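Technical note accompanying the year-one report. For the benefit of new consortium partners, we illustrate the data format agreed upon in the data management plan: each record pairs a sequence with a C-alpha cell string. No post-processing was applied to the example shown here.
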Amino acid sequence: MLQATSTPAEKRRKFRAGLESGSLQRFPGAFNPLSAKLIERQGFEGVYISGAVLSADLGLPDIGLTSVTEVAGRSQQIARMTELPTLVDADTGFGEPMNAARTVQLLEDAGAAGMHLEDQVNPKRCGHLDGKDVVEADIAVRRIKAAVAARRDPDFVIAARTDAAAVNGLDDAIDRAKAYADAGADLIFPEAMRGPADFEAMRAALDVPILANMTEFGKSELLDAQTLADIGVNLVIYPVTLLRLAMKAAENGLRALADQGTQQGLLDEMQHRRELYDLLDYSDYNAFDENVFNFRV
C-alpha cells in the first residue's frame, strides 16, 4: 500500500544477488508505475525503465531529447511502487563525464537499483536504428569511471552498454566491453547482438555479468529465456514489449469504438474494475484510512 516496503538499498542488494545467482534475471520494461506492479505480480525478477519508452510516452522519438530530470522523475515514480529492483536507461549520461556522475546520484536518490551508460555519440540514437555512431573508447571509459566514482551506495549497479558491434563490428565491441569492465562496470550490455553466436562470443570474453536486449522489430534475433540462460546471459530486458502491446490494444479498441459507437463488444478484452482495484490495493487503502481517520464531527 502507498509504496513498496523494501528500501532502495534492499532492492540493490537483491539485484546484485540476482546477477550472481546463476539464474537468468528477467526485466520487462514498465511504461508507468501501475505496469511495474503488474510485472511484479507476474513473477518477474525486476523492472526495466526504458529511455525509448519514456521518449515515446512524451510523444518524442528516441534520439536523446529527454532530460535527466525527466528520466529521474519517472524512475522515482516507478521504483517506489514495486518491491522489485529497477534498472534505468541513462543514455549517454546526459552530457560529459561530470553529467554522468550527477546522473548516478539522481538515480540513486530516485530509488533505482542500477543504470546503464552507453558509448554512443551524444545525442544518441535508438540502438537498433542505422546511422548511429560511437565515441572513442577512452571517452566512454571516462564516463564509466566518473559514474563509478560518484555512486554513494556500492550496491548500485552501473552497467556499460556498447553499440560498437553495429558500427565497428563484434571484435571492437568485445574490446570495448573488456575496457568498460576494467573501468568498473558491474554489468555489460552489448547492444544489437545478431544472434546466439554474438552472445556466446561476448560471454566467453568477459568475467562480469552480461545483458541481452530482446526488443521487437530490431536487429537482434528474439531468443527465448532458456536459450539465453544456456549461453550464460545473466539479465534479459524486454524494454518496449508492454508499451507496444498496450498501444496496439488501445488502437484496436478505439477503432472499434469509432466504428460501432459502443465499447460493449470490447469488455472481454479489458481489465475488469475488480482486477484494477486489486492491483491498486484498494482494500488496504480503505483499512488504512479507517484506522487513521476515524473521528466524526
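Partners are asked to follow this layout when depositing records. Residues 247-293 form one domain.
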